[in-house]
Amino acid sequence: xxxxSGTMVEFKRILVxxxxxxxxEQAVTVAVDLxxxxxxxxxxxxxxxxxxxxxFNDVPARIEGWVGPxxxxxxxxxxxSLAKLRVKLPGATSLLSQGKPADEILxxxxxxxxxxxxxxxxxxxxxSHVFLGSVAExxxxxxxxxxxxxxxxxxxxxx
Length: 159
Fold this sequence. Notes:
The structure is a single chain. The protein is built from five helices and seven strands. The longest helix is centred in the middle third of the chain and has 27 residues, at 59-85. The chain has 159 residues and is of the alpha/beta class. Among the domains are: 1-12 and 26-39 and 47-89, no CATH class; 119-153, no CATH class. The strands form two sheets. Strands 5-4-3-6-7 form a five-stranded parallel beta sheet, with helices on both faces. It has a two-stranded antiparallel sheet with strand order 1-2.
């Protein structure tokens, strides 16, 4: 058991959210290390979104055809990642959800009650942050559990 500012800290359940980007892969690496150090269970969580378009009258019919293939692709990637993860943590589990990533991560936190949530952040700044928002920022602000963010490498354009 470790202490942090005199407070006992013990991680038994770790939830790591992934979108399979480089920053998420780095977050998974950190999560595995912490799970091994604390003997914690680890759940790998992925949220997939189905685009919602309002340009056509038959949108629900068009989107219905996309849900299965998107879910299958997301499930395949998650199972691939879980298989790699289980080399180090045989008891690791995974969860897949459909919806808005921040909302679904917060819902999972409420259901699983992890001691720690780990997720990558893309490190967007400026207009890209304003327009694309930040899943990690919303989760950090609204989570009932501590959240550790792992920043991916920020790729900057040449001056």
